[in-house]
């Protein structure tokens, strides 16, 4: 025991030494060079170089001896085997001082390049470098199959005041599973933790992280990346197909498994491209332990879920989308995280990522925790994560979930159950600053991307630039439009005359933000029924109502979003454990609905008047907004130097012939009629055109008599 202090030796063997690198490995001492190695499953141990020296076992599993060469390997032996390995404790640190400084400062915007598990060559050895932030831990170890999940084997090196622990383990390879074993601030061993910056994970319900290499996919989307800024501009057509990858389609012949990223690259993307959508939006595919959360309670924010394949396969999916001209938006969840023991909760034995006070740090609605946005390292963790998806996986946008819950400290809380901000108000100033920083970084470092806020309050300036005092999002979901329009179309048409303003009110604030009109998954789950199920009347009237609804949505200012299955009027509400009812497409009415959505997307893309003014008030004007008695709506969409489009909606089950005001004389072509037989309607219409006369009407110089089928929307443009 003369070469090593007994108390140091006991601390190492018991796994409570806070600085194992100061003892383990090769060190120069007053008594000469010594090697100390901790190999708990070895009975004998040798240092092997030009010579070979057996080390003395000073405590069970702890060996020590003199050594005079600069390099060595270790050879261990027990009753079952003899094995050679590199000693990680003789290798120098990987992280540099700049990385350490930026992490401590909370400004390391490429955090994923230094934390997590990275396959690399270090000092001539191929292996994996592990680094994790746990500032209040007394000891952190990497555990896995490679060390029998023994936390004494690979105790990590603490990097000063940054709170980061690191170790390089030679010989480890991609596919190895691991966790962090942490001796907490109070000296208690915590449940083993998944890597907060892990790039992969085991398939749930297993919870370990998995070593994965990044940059394995050879990208071929340069053309898309160079032009995507134009395709996502506020004046461009943006039509989004929202999808839950696990329940879009399943392989029933193989126990009902979901499709892989490779299968989705062909089946889903071909389908979305055929329907004419410009983007696909994915419900969260960040790794999550509970299927029933649909991804909205993530644990692995840096890992695409293994449910559909490996990281490089997800990259191939995004690349395939880009090569079809489709953008990919990720539903991103920085608003909360689950309480699972292997996750971020009390990560180092303290409320590290979350608030200590449940009045600030716990969502009772979801039984989840809230990030402490005011802690610079936590904000940095999330800001870097946004950039990770945009840069590493070439994603075109982030839809930020539950923004309202982040903006307000009293969100879903009663009086006395929340903590005011420093000014005594209800706004979460730290979260507001965080969102501004995310948008500033995202748009600054990933040109051409979009960020989208799911924000259901009247918080001002959500889509205003940060330098003008806004939050800096590119778009915001128009929840007011969605609620009013769904409420209106769900009514029996006989009552609609009394609620006429539910379709006109949105025009009073349509241009207060850059809006997306969402019919999302939230509207067709938890007993809310399907879109077709919400419609009143007979079966035929339900379809006519829904066709009119979609046409009104596509004609109304704002970008478009439709959740999967609604394009063909699925009867059942969404079931995340099943798949869409594809057999319905054999029925003419359902196939007709899909034909309508395809044509709406085509007309929307090809007609500047229908998309240029989605976020510009010069692109919309009412022609008739007050005919509540007949539930009639007429409005015009326009774009500079382009032909206008006039939209007329008859939302009663009574056919009508009426006169509408128009902007010019001559022939106007009927470019869409929801009562077309191609869409499952009765083929009632205007024989393809109307003719405008010099008869002033509805404050317009010209007008035309038109036929309006019952429960229908028609669109006209000058021929």
Describe, in short, the structure shown.
The chain is α+β, with helices and mostly antiparallel strands.
How many domain regions?
4
Structural class: alpha+beta
**CATH architecture assignment of the largest domain:** Alpha-Beta Barrel
Residue runs with pLDDT of under 50 for 5 or more positions = none
Question: Please, could you describe this protein's structure?
Answer:
- By secondary structure, the protein is α+β, with helices and mostly antiparallel strands.
- It folds into four domains: 6-90, Sandwich (Immunoglobulin-like), CATH 2.60.40; 97-211, Immunoglobulin-like; 231-330 and 380-401 and 447-608, Glycosidases (TIM Barrel, Alpha-Beta Barrel), CATH 3.20.20; 617-718, Immunoglobulin-like (Sandwich).
- It has 16 helices and 36 strands.
- The strands form nine sheets. Strands 15-18-21-24-25-26-27-28 form an eight-stranded parallel β-barrel, surrounded by four helices. The chain has a seven-stranded antiparallel beta sheet with strand order 1-2-5-4-3-6-7.
- A hairpin with a 4-residue loop joins strand 6 (73-77) and strand 7.
- Helix 5 (261-275) packs parallel to helix 6 (311-323), helix 8 runs parallel beside helix 10 and helix 14 (539-555) runs parallel beside helix 15.
- It is elongated and about 110 Å long.
- The model has no long low-confidence stretch (mean pLDDT 96).
- InterPro entries: A-amylase/branching_C, Branching_enzy, GH, GH13_cat_dom, GlgB, GlgB_N, GlgB_N_E_set_prok, Glyco_hydro_13_N.
- Keywords: Carbohydrate metabolism, Glycogen biosynthesis, Glycogen metabolism, Glycosyltransferase, Transferase.
- The active site is at 401 (nucleophile), 454 (proton donor).
- One of its GO terms (biological process) is glycogen biosynthetic process.
- Residues 242-598 form the Glycosyl hydrolase family 13 catalytic domain.
